[in-house]
Amino acid sequence: MSSHSDDSGDEDDETASPADKSELHSTIKSLSLKLDDLSTCNDLIAKHGAALQRSLSELDSLKIPYESSEKLKVVNERATLFRITSNAMINACKDFLELAETHSRKWQRALQYEQEQRIHLEETIEQLAKQHNSLERAFRSAPGRATNPTKSFSEGDLLTPKGEDSEEDEDTEYFDAMEDSTSFITVITEAKEDRKAEGGTTGSVDWTSSDNVLDGASLVPKGPPKVKRRVRIPDKPNYSLNLWSIMKNCIGRELSKIPMPVNFNEPLSMLQRLTEDLEYHHLLDKAVHCTSSVEQMCLVAAFSVSSYSTTVHRIAKPFNPMLGETFELDRLDDMGLRSLCEQVSHHPPSAAHYVFSKHGWSLWQEITISSKFRGKYLSIMPLGAIHLEFQASGNHYVWRKSTSTVHNIIVGKLWIDQTGDIEIVNHKTKDRCQLKFLPYSYFSKEVARKVTGVVSDSQGKAHYVLSGSWDEQMECAKIVQSSPSSPGSDGKQKTVYQTLPAKLLWKKYPLPENAENMYYFSELALTLNEHEEGVAPTDSRLRPDQRLMEKGHWDEANTEKQRLEEKQRVSRRRRLEACSRGCGTEEEKEADVYVPLWFEKRLDPLTGETACMYKGGYWEAKERQGLHQGPQNFL
């Protein structure tokens, strides 16, 4: 049995849902009835065949003319052949009937066994999750456990541990894996006379005038906006829905292929979430004025981390964009930039993004979202390179996103974590920044959501240490001296960096008032789905299901979402049928047939990968009111 799946519903799904089981039972019942009909027909053929033979025998005994006798003989021979053929068919039908009845009983027993095993497995998983949850709570409440440990020096961290004003509460659940925290140790130095090198590498001993651009990088004065934008959306309805009841049939599957009601969405599309990465664009505006490439790297690294700050409470799934859907952010007046996203592939889901800033930088990327449900947690892996170029200096930075993980799918409070390493490379100067997102551990003394990093030049010499948390702030400290530490208990050596006092690079904006009832949207996120005149008919703001959900009409939104998904299925089937070039997979056929409107595939010379890049024309078309063209609309 197969069923349509996917957020837009056009991939086959090998996982049996409750509806599939019911349909399978119905199919078996129908087959049994057909077998009964076949048995009845078998009896009727045998009965009428015997009667025909008797009638022909009676005709043979009658005295009839010679010519009629010959014809009767031919009919009799044909009747005999029919009888022989009928008998063979009857015997075959009997064999098939017996075999089908035997196997039908086996199939029913096997199906019943599989259903019982599945129910038992689901109950076992849920029970294990509850026991795990109890053990986690017991560990956190254990007497004698330090809650805010202090240290004489910081291991890869220049921030003090979070105090009582932290947003953590007793319901927060944490990742239970022990990780090696950092590969270096930082020691803050104050007095100049204490900064003499003793067998180590010594750098400049003070913040210099070229570092002044880092002062107040996180502080951006906000004047009155030129365009008044909304500051709130309707409160989220209080619908209760069990996520595990839907996800338990989807273990190991791609998230975009799991049919989801809007109850698990937030009223923004993935294109709008991608645009949210620009919330702290002022870091790049500031980086334009850096004369030092390693100093500029610090601000680029802070920008890359800041894009995760909006995810800390955002465990809802954004809408999966339709193929050809677009989203523009035309904010030259207040943000100094223009941004355009387009959904360029549906399987796998992929979005292309291009940003131009009047302050002297541009950013582009093609991101493919790969996601898997692993049972207790959900992994979201954004694939694809992000490019950032500063026009004046020619510095060209490339990096990739880290993995996001949503925990406690079965039981407990949902929470999200960012894990993995990010390497940012300046392809002009060969400077590098190594960022490490540390997964939270019960047994770690580190602060939650911690990020550490080191900025090095092309020779491998470290210049800055970065530290902070991806949900709050990032700091950088200039390295004065570096030296190896003594081997630890595991025999490993860490590098000790002696640094100047840290400077704040980035600090998260506070959430708007009542944010907890507005999907925890930031100030920028609240404006992304606001209606605007002059946008393309493919713009995410015009999606009716998303708009209905934002207004709180979730039942109507689900109905509209199904309509749009069916429309997309029909369009996709037509494209695949039209492909007559003998492509391999359906994805290859679709990629071969569908051509993005505002982006085109090119070979990226830096990564060696083929990616969709902006080919121009969108903003010019908007100015002459020519955006009515497009492959997709939502009517």
Description:
- This protein has helices spanning 18-60, 66-140, 243-247, 270-275, 282-287, 293-306, 523-528, 544-550, 554-578, 586-593, 618-623, and strands at residues 3-4, 12-13, 184-188, 201-202, 265-269, 317-319, 326-331, 337-345, 350-357, 361-373, 378-383, 385-390, 396-400, 403-407, 415-426, 432-437, 450-456, 462-469, 473-484, 495-499, 503-507, 599-603, 610-614.
- The two termini are 32 Å apart.
- It has 635 residues and is α+β, with helices and mostly antiparallel strands.
- Residues 1-17, 146-181 and 193-204 have low confidence and may be disordered.
Task: Annotate the secondary structure layout.
Elements: E1 3-4, E2 12-13, H1 18-60, H2 66-140, E3 184-188, E4 201-202, H3 243-247, E5 265-269, H4 270-275, H5 282-287, H6 293-306, E6 317-319, E7 326-331, E8 337-345, E9 350-357, E10 361-373, E11 378-383, E12 385-390, E13 396-400, E14 403-407, E15 415-426, E16 432-437, E17 450-456, E18 462-469, E19 473-484, E20 495-499, E21 503-507, H7 523-528, H8 544-550, H9 554-578, H10 586-593, E22 599-603, E23 610-614, H11 618-623
Helix pairs in contact: 1-2, 8-9, 9-10
Summary of the model, kept short:
The chain is α+β, with helices and mostly antiparallel strands.
Feature tags:
Oxysterol-bd_CS, membrane, 32% helix, 635 residues, Oxysterol-binding protein, alpha+beta, six-stranded antiparallel barrel, disordered N terminus, two-stranded antiparallel sheet, lipid transport
